[in-house]
Structures are given as structure tokens and as C-alpha cells.
Amino acid sequence: MADEEEDAPFEEDxxxxxxxxxGGQGKRKRLFSKELRCMMYGxxxxxxxxxxxxxxxxxxVIEFITxxxxxxxxxxxQGRVQVEDIxxxxxxxxRKFARVKDLLTMNEELKRARxxxxxxxxxx
Amino acid sequence: MAEPVEAGCEEPVSARDSPPPASPPSGPAAAAETAEExxxAAETAExxxxxxxxxxxxxxxxxxxxxxxxxxGPELAPADAEDPSLQAAAKKMKLExxxxxxxxxxxxxxxxxxxxxxxxxxxxxxxxxYEMYRRSAFPKAAIKRLIQSITGTSVSQNVVIAMxxxxxxxxxxxxxxxxDVCEKWGELPPLQPKHMRxxxxxLKARGQIPNSKYKxxxxx
Lengths: 124, 220
Hints:
The complex is a heterodimer of chains A (124) and B (220). Chain A has 124 residues and is mostly helical. In chain A, 65% of the residues lie in helices and 0% in strands. Among the domains of chain A are: 29-80, Histone, subunit A; 91-123. Chain A is built from 5 helices and no strands. In chain A, helix 2 (33-43) packs across helix 3 (51-74). Chain B is 65% helix and 0% strand. In chain B, helix 2 packs antiparallel against helix 4 (84-120), helix 6 crosses helix 7 (157-184) and helix 7 (157-184) crosses helix 8 (193-206). Chains A and B meet through helix 1, helix 2, helix 3, helix 4 and helix 5 of A and helix 2, helix 5, helix 6, helix 7 and helix 8 of B.
């Protein structure tokens, strides 16, 4: 794939598209191809996005998660990643911050609802 | 588009029938919502300051003023319950809090209604896209594996939930910026790598992409 050469110098962590069994450095199987396609369509791209664009996005996401994890490990309780650390790192970005708060609140509600449902079943 | 729906799409369980009030599809909505709360707080603070002027003692005014500043939690613990003026102040604060909560719930309900009206008037293609937008998600197992391979220790479920959510917002930011670039350059979707790279360059300039690879030297 010719665009690999364009991508590699751009992406600092050389993660080339997997596929070969070469065992070369950084050859990783694509983790999120299907989900990323759905997501790109949802956010406004075409129904069939280009594979190269999906690859670039996947590398970006993996780099993002890696950065966040490293930062979270260095604050709060060292060597561990906790939710509070993530929330702290995100505090300046309004969208992400609101999203995390909503997700955690909804999760709590769902857990409570499931617990109440199970108890109701157990009772009857 | 039946397959992508099954593969790697998570259903936000309660979200189908009654869209939760606070999952805004676009940035301005999220910013507006977080902006709304301090606004409501400011309004009630002003209300507090205005009311004591209507024939109450300066002591009540001082109490109400102080209470209005520390408004976040239910701070209604008057020290001595015998003093009627303190009781009145406490009751007033309780009413104000209840009003604030009611107003916020009403705002949420308004938002829910508006979303329902909007979604009901979507075309087929728009409905499809909206469904993909709501349902697509990163697989929790893969994210958990990724984080654990970086930390070396196990992580809790909440961390995985938070990280998946943030990553989805991140993807949204990049895709929206890339679509802006695409439109600005007079081209059409589907997005090409050059749009993505330009989008990333712009986001980096704005500081929205974390990059801890270069240490800043402040003083030489």
C-alpha cells in the first residue's frame, strides 16, 4: 500500500497495517476497523469510508489512549489508572468531561436498576 | 447496512426509547449544557440577594448572602434551630434549591422533547446515520486489553467505560474537523488521508491532541 510510506513518517509510533506474519516491528492487527467505520459514518463521513482514513484514525485512537494512560499513571496513585485521574486529565475539555460524567452517572443508574430488578425477581 | 449494526455496535441500553437528556450530539449542546448550570446558579444567587431587601433584617440578609455563595450541596444546617430568622433563611434556601432542581429538570425535559421532535422528522438516511452515531462504540474487551498492556496491571470497569467514551468523542472531533477541511478545500466525502492529516494538524495547534513527547523548556 503506497500510502504506508506517507503514513509512517507522519505517525511517530510506526504502526503499520498488519497482515504480514513478518514479525516486523509494530506490525499490529487492526483492532477497531469495523467499529471505526460505523463511527465515521455516524459522525458525518460517507457510508463506506476509505480504508486508509480508517487506518489513520485507528492509529490516532491508539496513540490517544496510550497518552492518556501514561498521563493517568503518572498522577494520583502512581502506576495505576483510576477514573478520578482520567476525569482530572479531561477537566479542561468540556465535551469529553461532560461525556465522562454522563457515562459514569448512567452506569450507576443502570447498576442500581438492575440490582432492584434482581431483588424484585428474587422476592417474587 | 445490516452487518455494521451487529459488528461492534453497543446499544446504550436505556437510550433507545427515551434518549437520556444529557448525551448531546454536538459540541455546542454539551458546552451549552455545562454553561447552563452555572447560569442557573447565578440566577438563584441574584434572587437570594434581591429578596432579603423586602423587609427582612440585615442579619437574614447576611446569612442568605453567605448561604448563596456556598450553594453547591444542601447546606441547610442552621446552627441553632431556636432562632426564627435562621429558620426562615433555611426554609428559603431549601425552596431555592428545589426551584433550581425543578428548573433544571424542566430544562432536561424540554431538551428531551425537542430531541424527540427532531428525530421524528428525520429522513431515512438521516435516521440511519443517527442510529450509527448512537450505537457505535469501541469493544470494551479490546480497550481493556490495550490499557492493561500499557499499565501492566488490571484496571477497573469504570476506567474502560470512561476511556471508550472519551475515545469516541475524540474520533468525533477529528472526523468533524476533517469534514470541515474537506468542505473548505471544495472536495466531497469520503474523507481522504490528506483531510485527516490536516485535521490532526489543526487540532494539535489547538492543543486538543495530547502530546507528551516534547518537553517544554520554560527558562533557559
